[in-house]
């Protein structure tokens, strides 16, 4: 009999590919999501899983669509990157277009760009919420929903566990942004990423304490948030780490089949 568990998936740009590897490792042991709360890159993977796809099918979609970023220099005043490829993949492959019709419940966290509050979307159109949750300020133009501009949910909580706590137990948290030891020789992008991760780290640590099992593959630290060409390596890092972790943790009631 399959075992169902609530999952919360973090953002992380290209490192979000690792979520598929993590979920694949759980599936191999007969453990599947019953609900997912997610933001940014995690919400993209979660949308397909909650739509009824398995991890292998989602992985194939990501590879075929070559998900990543596209440049739109005309929008440089508000953001010079776009999520056009992501939007095209969601539009083409999602079989359900609203939260209410998804086979599995999904909560998507985005940040209100007016007041900085976190907003949880769990009803209405699906794709705008996912795009909003994935929109990094300065790099992307904010996404407006009902007249309100939204940006990346990671800014207000990169491991959005709160929507799950009232209804679900034994939440499994997956965070794909390990903080590596400081490297003084790191370049501009590495330092920018480190600054961002440190700025949003405290809420993640609080959410971690509320997870029954917390997964943060250390090997992901070698990949940047824009390393979309390294899909296979990122996926495998998540898969191998979680397989090993589950072997070591086998028998613990927090995740193991009863």
TrEMBL record:
<dbReference type="InterPro" id="IPR050301">
    <property type="entry name" value="NTE"/>
</dbReference>
<keyword id="KW-0378">Hydrolase</keyword>
<feature type="short sequence motif" description="DGA/G">
    <location>
        <begin position="152"/>
        <end position="154"/>
    </location>
</feature>
<feature type="active site" description="Proton acceptor">
    <location>
        <position position="152"/>
    </location>
</feature>
<dbReference type="InterPro" id="IPR016035">
    <property type="entry name" value="Acyl_Trfase/lysoPLipase"/>
</dbReference>
<protein>
    <submittedName>
        <fullName>Patatin-like phospholipase family protein</fullName>
    </submittedName>
</protein>
<keyword id="KW-0442">Lipid degradation</keyword>
<keyword id="KW-0443">Lipid metabolism</keyword>
<feature type="short sequence motif" description="GXGXXG">
    <location>
        <begin position="11"/>
        <end position="16"/>
    </location>
</feature>
<dbReference type="Pfam" id="PF01734">
    <property type="entry name" value="Patatin"/>
</dbReference>
<feature type="active site" description="Nucleophile">
    <location>
        <position position="40"/>
    </location>
</feature>
<dbReference type="InterPro" id="IPR002641">
    <property type="entry name" value="PNPLA_dom"/>
</dbReference>
<feature type="domain" description="PNPLA">
    <location>
        <begin position="7"/>
        <end position="165"/>
    </location>
</feature>
């Amino acid at each position: 009999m399959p075992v169902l568990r609530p999952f919360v998936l973090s953002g992380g740009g290209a490192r979000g590919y690792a979520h598929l590897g993590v979920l694949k490792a759980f599936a191999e042991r007969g453990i599947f999501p019953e609900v997912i709360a997610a933001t940014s890159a995690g919400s993209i993977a979660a949308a397909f899983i909650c739509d009824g796809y398995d991890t292998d099918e989602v992985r194939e979609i990501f590879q075929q669509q070559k998900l990543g970023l596209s440049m739109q220099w005309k929008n440089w005043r508000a953001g010079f990157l776009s999520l056009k490829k992501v939007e095209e993949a969601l539009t083409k492959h999602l079989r359900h277009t609203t939260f209410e019709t998804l086979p599995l419940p999904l909560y998507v966290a985005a940040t209100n760009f007016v007041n900085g509050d976190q907003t949880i979307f769990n009803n209405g159109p699906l794709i705008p919420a996912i795009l909003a949750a994935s929109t990094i300020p300065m790099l992307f133009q904010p996404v407006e929903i009902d007249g309100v501009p939204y940006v990346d949910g990671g800014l207000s909580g990169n491991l959005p566990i709160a929507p799950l706590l009232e209804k679900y137990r034994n939440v499994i948290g997956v965070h794909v942004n390990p903080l590596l030891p400081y490297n003084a020789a790191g370049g501009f992008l590495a330092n920018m990423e480190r600054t961002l991760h440190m700025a949003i780290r405290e809420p993640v640590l609080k959410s971690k304490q509320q997870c029954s099992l917390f997964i943060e593959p250390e090997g992901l630290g070698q990949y940047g948030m824009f390393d979309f060409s390294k899909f296979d390596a990122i996926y495998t890092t998540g898969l191998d780490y979680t397989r090993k972790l589950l072997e070591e943790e086998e028998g613990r009631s927090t995740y193991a089949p009863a």
